[in-house]
Amino acid sequence: MKLSRRKVLALGAGFGAAALTGLSTSGIAFADEAATQAAIDAFAAGAEVGEGRISLTAPEIAENGNTVPISVDVESEMTEADHVAAVMILASGNPNPGVITFNFTPMNGVAAATTRIRLAKTQDVIAVAKMSDGSVFMDKKLVKVTIGGCGG
Amino acid sequence: MFSRREFLMAAVATSAIGGLGMPGQWARAAARQELSQSDLLDMDAYGNVTLVHITDLHAQLMPVFFREPSINLGVGDAYGKPPHVTGKDFLDLYNIQPGSAQAYALTSEDYVNLAKSYGKMGGMDRIATVVNSIRSSRADNMLLLDGGDTWQGSYTSNMTHGADMVEVMNALKPDAMTGHWEFTYGVDRVTEIVDELPFPFLGSNIYDAEWNEPAFEGYKIFERGGVKVGVIGQAFPYTPIANPRWMFPNWSFGIREEDIARNIEAARADGAELIVLLSHNGFDVDRALAKRVDGIDVILCGHTHDALPEPLLVNKTLLVATGSHGKFVSRLDLDVQKGDVKGFKYRLVPIFSDVIEQDAEMTALVEKVRAPYSEELARELGTTDSLLYRRGNFNGTFDDLICQALIEERDADIALSPGFRWGTSVLPGEAITVEDLHNACAMTYPSAYRSEMTGKTIHDILEDVADNLFNADPYYQQGGDMVRVGGMGYTIDPTKTIGNRITDMTLLESGEKINPESTYVVAGWASVSEDVEGPAIWDVVEDHLQKNPVVALEPNRSVKVISS
């Protein structure tokens, strides 16, 4: 894309729209729900995906879709017998939903991580934790990608 | 449609105290047209802490006319609940007599006639009288808190980069403030001012974008009446989205409720017995926040410019909405015992400029900061036969005028004017001065752009802005109104989801439907983009007024609102 979306659309209205249009018309194929689900299934390796223990922090509306800060925390004693083995981050609406997988050992002491990710459009960001006993927990958050609003 | 349940809950909380709600005394006095300053101000002190709140002054130093909205729709859980109650419904809900002083101050009902009877509201010298009067009896118990949007919104604030407001507010001696439009003076100017402020600028949710660490003090503990009060500041969460991020690229915002929770915990650990959130979130965000975050005793709400005559109780949190443009000052007296609020007494003090005395020192200071610009401020650009105002979800006559100017001066098919909620009103028959015009558009990124857009892009823009206003989850709302559109009509269903709200986009002149594939010339202003070219919007409107010196607007029926 030669024209920056922000410029074109911001010019459009001072607060206008269409982060989605900018990209979707450029011909990139977006991941569908099936691809995201397949990634979760592969990570879970047959375990039931539960709620709780993991919490994902992300902005409700991204200030800049190109670099969205997210962080993830998992409640765990982080002992040899019971610790977080890995946390996978997915961006369900990106061309490729896989973002990053953090691997942990008891040596980490806590299971927490922060990174910045690029989001092509409004979508759910998903964090899945796998514990050392094979159990799996998930949290997700809708992050809106917009050019701006008009607060006033 | 709406219930009084939440108010009844508030009433229960104060039943032992009495005196909550509409100050009956000034209601009766107003009915007799003999409102006096003591009717507005006298209140027996209660408890050990007095919070005085002002917010969203938008740099209005002088008394103003400001018409409240006649349309302010709530969606999701906020449907039909205050502040999404207007006009006659508002009067019924709060038992306000039509034609009374409260009716004039709080609604748009019969606005022009009542404006002529009751006069302008606000003015920093009248506000100073109120603040000083409370301070004279409650100095050791009182905190004066400024909710932000204080430094922007007038000709003089724009010319002085906020210096006029900073000087005047320093004289009023607030204990803390937070902000939103303040940031549009840019990182250097804001830093320069904040470093010199004699009180803290609090922002629990402002982060250094590079290092992802707090950029401002999040909270401060004050001791008043023997009570340690923790005041947490919450700047407008979507400042970098609703306003140009390039002006303050190093600061990141967001709701960051986890930081509020963390700061509550830290303040309590420091001994705070009362937690106050000085908020620029917007009312619906604050209402949602009060349900989600425990431990906030009082939220002083701002941003969405709502004025409510009673606090709203949400779980254990009192929400206070003080209005805007200096029309009101809130006084909340609290009895705090062992870390608990045992009771409260509240008064929304309306600043009737003809009733409340001027504080001589403040009058002199305001005159001093305005003096260099007095001639230009008073310069007349035209007159209006129609009431000019801005507030309302879909349109306001001041924006009708701005859109008309954009279409004619910039030779466009369609005009877009942002749904700002600031800007004062001009009564029919009055001159439109430079001051009036700048009250509606004074800002640091005023360029009027002209560009070609496809019908699809215009639709996407309208959908995006509509979602900022009508997303059923308040955390995704940005607190402005709908972008005002000139030259084009449309139908909107606020209850739908993004992409599905806007239909029937039609060029008004030809009646032709907007074609997604066709290209249209669009003129607008206040783009958040960095390199926008075009004349300042006030020059565009002034040029238009020069050619059309008498403004007479037809009722705007170009937006049709439906509900599924």
UniProtKB/TrEMBL annotation, chain A:
<dbReference type="InterPro" id="IPR032711">
    <property type="entry name" value="SoxY"/>
</dbReference>
<dbReference type="InterPro" id="IPR006311">
    <property type="entry name" value="TAT_signal"/>
</dbReference>
<feature type="signal peptide">
    <location>
        <begin position="1"/>
        <end position="31"/>
    </location>
</feature>
<dbReference type="InterPro" id="IPR038162">
    <property type="entry name" value="SoxY_sf"/>
</dbReference>
<feature type="domain" description="Ig-like SoxY">
    <location>
        <begin position="44"/>
        <end position="150"/>
    </location>
</feature>
<keyword id="KW-0732">Signal</keyword>
<dbReference type="Pfam" id="PF13501">
    <property type="entry name" value="SoxY"/>
</dbReference>
<protein>
    <recommendedName>
        <fullName>Ig-like SoxY domain-containing protein</fullName>
    </recommendedName>
</protein>
<dbReference type="InterPro" id="IPR016568">
    <property type="entry name" value="Sulphur_oxidation_SoxY"/>
</dbReference>
UniProtKB/TrEMBL annotation, chain B:
<dbReference type="InterPro" id="IPR029052">
    <property type="entry name" value="Metallo-depent_PP-like"/>
</dbReference>
<dbReference type="Pfam" id="PF02872">
    <property type="entry name" value="5_nucleotid_C"/>
</dbReference>
<dbReference type="InterPro" id="IPR041829">
    <property type="entry name" value="SoxB_N"/>
</dbReference>
<keyword id="KW-0378">Hydrolase</keyword>
<dbReference type="InterPro" id="IPR036907">
    <property type="entry name" value="5'-Nucleotdase_C_sf"/>
</dbReference>
<dbReference type="InterPro" id="IPR006311">
    <property type="entry name" value="TAT_signal"/>
</dbReference>
<dbReference type="InterPro" id="IPR030998">
    <property type="entry name" value="Thiosulf_SoxB"/>
</dbReference>
<dbReference type="InterPro" id="IPR006179">
    <property type="entry name" value="5_nucleotidase/apyrase"/>
</dbReference>
<comment type="similarity">
    <text>Belongs to the 5'-nucleotidase family.</text>
</comment>
<feature type="domain" description="5'-Nucleotidase C-terminal">
    <location>
        <begin position="396"/>
        <end position="526"/>
    </location>
</feature>
<protein>
    <submittedName>
        <fullName>Thiosulfohydrolase SoxB</fullName>
    </submittedName>
</protein>
<keyword id="KW-0547">Nucleotide-binding</keyword>
<dbReference type="InterPro" id="IPR008334">
    <property type="entry name" value="5'-Nucleotdase_C"/>
</dbReference>
